[in-house]
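Re: [help] complex structure
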Amino acid sequence: MGTSVRSVQPSRPGPAQTCKVALVGFGTVGSAVARLLLARAHEHPFQLTHICNRNVQRKKADWVPGTVRWTDDIDEILASDANIVVELVGGLQPAYDWVRRALESGKSVVTANKQLIAHHGSELLDLARASQQHLAFGACVAGGVPVLSGLYDGLAGDRLFKVRGILNGTCNYILTRIEQLGASFDEALKEAQQAGFAEADPTDDVDGPDARAKLVVLARVGLNADVKPQQVLCRSIRDLVTVDFEYAHDLGCTVRQISRAELRDGQFFAAVEPALVPQGSPLASVSGGQNMVMSTGEFGGETVFSGHGAGGNPTAVAVVSDLLQLLRYRSPGAQAPDRPDARPYEVSGDFETPHYLRFVVKDSPGIISSLAGILSKYQINIDAVFQRPGHDKAALPFVITLEACKTSRVETAIAEMRQFAFLAQAPLRMPILR
Amino acid sequence: MGTSVRSVQPSRPGPAQTCKVALVGFGTVGSAVARLLLARAHEHPFQLTHICNRNVQRKKADWVPGTVRWTDDIDEILASDANIVVELVGGLQPAYDWVRRALESGKSVVTANKQLIAHHGSELLDLARASQQHLAFGACVAGGVPVLSGLYDGLAGDRLFKVRGILNGTCNYILTRIEQLGASFDEALKEAQQAGFAEADPTDDVDGPDARAKLVVLARVGLNADVKPQQVLCRSIRDLVTVDFEYAHDLGCTVRQISRAELRDGQFFAAVEPALVPQGSPLASVSGGQNMVMSTGEFGGETVFSGHGAGGNPTAVAVVSDLLQLLRYRSPGAQAPDRPDARPYEVSGDFETPHYLRFVVKDSPGIISSLAGILSKYQINIDAVFQRPGHDKAALPFVITLEACKTSRVETAIAEMRQFAFLAQAPLRMPILR
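Output below.
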């Protein structure tokens, strides 16, 4: 560092020094970004110069100044004098090509595209560096909650080894509705779709890929780990039923879709799945479409970030915050929000954890004994057995909780249990977080 | 901005580029900072060169390398080649002189000194700018919780208008003990002192000045407001008794020391005082010595930050995060974490809010009527009256809740109530947060 800390006087960017911004993608988030930039125009030096979208004619909005150029041609953006491209089209293609080309043509990029960063983060960050540009992606995780900058800047001094979170608002909305109303998954999903919280095809949300992409980005920024989404185990919330919440409550817990990653003894563990969380945990208090991230560091312990994880305005705040940070810290000495030494890992889903096993059986004598026999064979200790009264004997749900052991051992035991004719459904396994 | 976004390739600071750090103050936080810097020495370019403390001989620790120079002479630090001074002595003097002189002698400063920044923030930031140095103070508020960087960087894109928080762990510890054990304030304070959570003289914590300094720093960073601590109303938690928690529970609330600041119609409101918070609010879930900050923005809504607000290690994480951020973003274009346009405000404590009034009376007929008469005179609407059974008629506690109105009106009404001979104690007023 030497004398370079004696830097020259920081310049104060003012309206005179304008920075030209092209917006690519003018959906909910894109229009919120435009509104936010325009609403605060006197407070920052950004000038919105272009809006690019398919069939752009039908998108034109009268509140956008006439000086903004509307186009459906990405080449026009790339050939323009815009300094920064804000990519909000989502998905891998054509976003990947566009972001690459923007960086190559000497533009910095701000993106809210979690899949893009989850799949191609390292490559695009390298390209940004080689192109002497910045790539900022603070809006990828938890929308308006400033968790990526919190982990990267605010907790830089710690050595983080664990991140856990509720990263998908749709799942959280559905699960809280099942819990509150005793609704079935299908009913809660339908309600979420009607309320605009879920897509017509909810796969990406309820089966985990959306949360998984966010977890991979979190792991890059918080844990310095460069892993691919397809390495991370995802399990759906589709198999949850009301009785799981009843048993969870008996255990002092609730059920949430939890995304977690952990570094332990040089190994990297990660999974996205429904899990039991204690009622006293901050994770249990997240309701509706909110998001939460808890990080754990060797020195500072647990830190919690929560707020609005989705929606046009919160996500737009994250995008504009990235723009401002890029401007504040743009300079020869500044680095983009990527730890330079993010390193690749194998990913294991084999957490050592207590488990909840829910069975639905045709009642007959000897069931517990048969199941316990298999658990014992794999040296898995039973913690407790719960059976709520009032259920149909032909489809009787009950729960066995297990002491902490490797998930793989429980999986093997469950596979062997499938032979039993008394099972009316495949057993449901969930970790119990502590 | 023009072409400057096309910056040259960011340099990667490595061990070769060392940055010399002098530690001033070697108490709990100072030694934790030294340990953290030494534990992660291979991961960052900081070299601990000096440790300065009074009676330094008795402070010397064998785990500190022999290359570190121990001194009790600040002039030696100021004359040294250290690039950054980390000020951890606390209090206004001599810290103020030392920080001034460090900046003037061409050193950047990282400090955890909330009183210093609360009282002299603008002046010292101006001096840092004029000296072409940085002044970082992320550890001043909520210790290890990265709330200042979260507000300044992560939520820069929003227009924040409200911050509320639990900023003093000692008060929170005492209040949760009164709540859990039915202890008196004095008993809970004694227990907190024995557990190391409270000082022998607890004034700074329980009467509000500690939280007030943090609130002033939060307001600077989050709300862009330059106000002085002495402008902000502080009310003690000393007058709270167990029955206040019982009534609070009846109202679906609990009691916490809340620090809050709000910009509304160009006016700035702030106070530090005990308040009722709904059980469903994140603020109610903060237990023991934890800290929490909730910010509210025009665009992104509510964001919550929480974690360990004090203690050596969490505070050291914040200090080292500041060091790293200073290094990452040190450069001609980078600014210290201060919004350049923080502006001065008059401060009003006259929030418009619902109220909780707790009376202790010698029971006699006509009490409610007398009190209601005064409230009515000042056009204050009663929401409800609560009286729990089983109390002594000579010192009967009961509660009147009021609909939202200006605090000043309630104060005036209370002043007038003091005439009543049936009052066994002065009435206790608390706002009810929503």
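Residues 353 and 404 of chain B are 4 Å apart (CA to CA).
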